[in-house]
Amino acid sequence: MNVPTADDWIWLARIRRPQGRKGEVFADVLTDFPEKFSERKKLWLLGSSTSGVGSGAGSPVRGKDANIANAQHAGKPPADPPPREVELAAHWLHKGGVVLHFSGIDSISAAETLAGFIVAVPRAERASLAADEFHIADLIGCTVFEVTSSEPTAVGQIENVDRTAGPVPLLIVQGAKGEVLIPFAKSFLRKLDIEARRVEMTLPEGLLDLNP
């Protein structure tokens, strides 16, 4: 079997510590579809030396209502140790995270060796979305264009998404004059072309002048 390359992983969880006496571990959830753990028996562990940030397996932008799920863009697996395939024997949600029990991990000492590891799946296995949904990982790197006038104007490239500032998520865009924060609202969005790495929006007059 060919192991996915560095850019082909979707992060589901980050293991923090042992949980219980039989090898269970407690992990932070990095996906907006934690219920999908019930459908996944084969997972991968990426070593604790992994750098970068992860991508929620089901972190969508819904074109219908412009809600963006909480996620981060794709990370990189470690060079050493190599990604390790594991079988998920059981899981349950617990105190804002998830408890995972992998086959063959049957003691506290064995569970301790997994602290810091990332639980992931190949990008090809990420959760499928509806026609009007998009993964945040796909938005990172897209260029935002202001299309109010007849001549579209490039605003800048999307670097991240901020969902903590209020009810409307913000696109964090790096423009020619610095960082620009653009509300990702349905009323502003005109076209999203992932293949062309292009997001077309009509923005209120003066919005771009407030951001730098």
Structure description:
- The protein has 212 residues and is mainly β.
- It contains 3 helices and 14 strands.
- It has a 6-stranded antiparallel beta barrel.
State the fourth-level CATH superfamily of the largest domain. Answer: RimM
CATH class group of the largest domain: Mainly Beta
Low-confidence stretches: 50-59, 62-78
Here the CATH topology of the largest domain equals Elongation Factor Tu (Ef-tu), domain 3
**Total discrete domains:** 2
Q: How many individual β-strands?
A: 14
H/E element string?
Answer: EEEEEEHEEHEEEEEEH
Largest sheet: 6 strands, antiparallel, barrel
Give the number of helices: 3
Strand numbers in spatial order across the main sheet? 1-2-6-5-3-7
CATH architecture of the largest domain: Beta Barrel
Give the overall form: elongated
Percentage beta strand? 35-45%
Structural class: mainly beta
Helix percentage range: under 10%
Question: Could you tell me the mean pLDDT?
Answer: 79
Gyration radius, in Å: 19 Å
- Measure the end-to-end span: 48 Å
Descriptive key words:
Elongation Factor Tu (Ef-tu), domain 3, elongated, 14 strands, six-stranded antiparallel β-barrel, mainly beta, six-stranded mixed sheet, SH3 type barrels
Q: Would you spell out the secondary-structure blueprint of this structure?
A:
Layout: E1 9-18, E2 25-29, E3 42-46, E4 60-62, E5 84-94, E6 97-102, H1 108-112, E7 118-122, E8 133-135, H2 136-139, E9 143-146, E10 153-162, E11 170-175, E12 178-183, E13 189-193, E14 198-201, H3 207-210
Parallel strand pairs: 9-14
Antiparallel strand pairs: 1-2, 1-7, 2-6, 3-5, 3-7, 4-8, 5-6, 9-10, 10-11, 11-12, 13-14
